[in-house]
Amino acid sequence: MRVLVVGGGGREHALCWAIAASPLLDALYCAPGNAGIAAVATCLPIAADDIEGQVGLALDQNIDLVVVGPEGPLVAGLVDRLEDAGIKAFGPSAAAAALEGSKAFTKDLCARHGIPTARYARFTDATAAWAYVRDKSPPIVIKADGLAAGKGVVIAETVAEANAAISAMLLGDRFGAAGAEIVIEDFLAGEEASYFALVDGINILPLAAAQDHKRVGDGDTGPNTGGMGAYSPTPIVTDAVAEKVVAQIIRPTVSAMAEAGTPFKGVLYAGLMIEGGEPSLVEYNVRFGDPECQVLMARLGSDLLPALFAAADGELDFFDLRWLDDTAVTVVMAANSYPGDYAKGSVIGGLEQAEAIDGVDVFHAGTTLGRDGTVRAAGGRVLGITATAPGLAAARALAYRAVDAIDWPGGFCRRDIAARAAS
To answer: Do 196 and 304 lie in a common domain?
Structure first.
């Protein structure tokens, strides 16, 4: 089989790494890819959001399956264009990708179908939004409706902070078109986790749970980021909780999308808040998370490629996957000053030493090869140091041992990934 993975981040490196191990694979391409992906796939300089360029590449290379990594091309309709061209794709149509592309769409769907989630209201007018939060008890959650690279959420600790967030989104053009409408939600108490399932339009194949760390600083301080680390499995998602997630959240969503004539195919990522063993939906993503994908791929004990084909072909009803009992931990190394303005081009050393540690894989998220052959930083989140070991404490220690082998003065990481769960 000839496979094309669209994207160039840590998620796509993890997917390429897993797909490359399949005995069914004949050729693997990634566009645009990065310095790490180039070790397992042929990388071609076509941007992930270049819809026509990606379709042309798939046709030119006689691709059997396109695996779309990032949310942007999915929401923009890449899968629709590929299927129009007769190319099989793993991922949802643009209509189904609205589950991530519009938080208001998802909240309305939850309300119609009784899916547990926080109470909410939608606004395009700042004055009306200010009036709504005036009598709210903080914390108050303000979300840009559209895609904002994981940074479009503000958890306001005061009404003044909520008003400022409303102004920034609706009046200040902070997130452009993504913030033209906002969703204001009640704050959900509990512990966050993520649950993943493959979906073929009708059938659901539950995968596994993970826990991400969104804030940039130790102790969950500072602004939200695209994710500073993750681990899987997570103790908060017991078998009983997982059954509730599938029965009360994922299955009703998949049924509702099918009934609406916009069946969902691909991977459905449910961002959850869990309190007293009861899960509520925070939001959906319509792709593998980043860095959650890294820990999931590290724990996967089966061939990923036929599962992706089965989801695309509507044949998940008799499919199963095996998961390793080991725990996986990913620590993200990011460029100094991320998620603010950061410099590009700094040299990263120590990669071979880190990867030589048994049980460690280094996934590249924002790297490029310099003309002198050095690996250089080319993004905000740059590396995902991933370790797999029996038990959370051991996996965590191994991951930080590998982090300490990296020689990169231009980067930093959180030092408390998975610390609370490991204690």
So the answer is: yes
